[in-house]
Amino acid sequence: MTDRINRIKEVLVIQGKSQVWLAEELGKSTTSITAICNNKSQPHLKDLKKIAEILDVDIRDLLVPTKK
């Protein structure tokens, strides 16, 4: 199974926004956001919802489907 790029990271690239920007908007450290974008940690559900709001995307767009 090949690993997909992190969806949050992908949306940031598509929108031309940085992880530093997201960290500031979310009120989290850049280290935390970098860990999330590099699949080293997972955001809490409330943070995932807030990230979706900040990026103006559906929360489902930030998740990789487990079924086809």
Features:
68 residues; single chain; mainly alpha
Structural features, described:
- This protein is an all-alpha fold and about 70 residues long.
- It has four helices and no strands.
- The model has no long low-confidence stretch (mean pLDDT about 90).
List the helices and strands and how they pair.
Blueprint: H1 7-15, H2 19-26, H3 30-37, H4 45-55
Quick summary:
This protein has 68 residues and is mainly alpha-helical.
How large is the count of helical segments? 4
Q: Uncertain regions: pLDDT < 50 for 5+ in a row?
A: none
Q: How much helix is in the residues?
A: 40-55%
The Cα radius of gyration reads 11 Å
How much of the sequence lies in strands comes to under 5%
Which shape, going by the Cα principal axes? globular
Task: Report the mean per-residue pLDDT as an integer.
Answer: 91
SSE string: HHHH
Distance between the termini: 14 Å
The main pleated sheet reads as: none
Tally the beta strands.
0
Structural class: mainly alpha
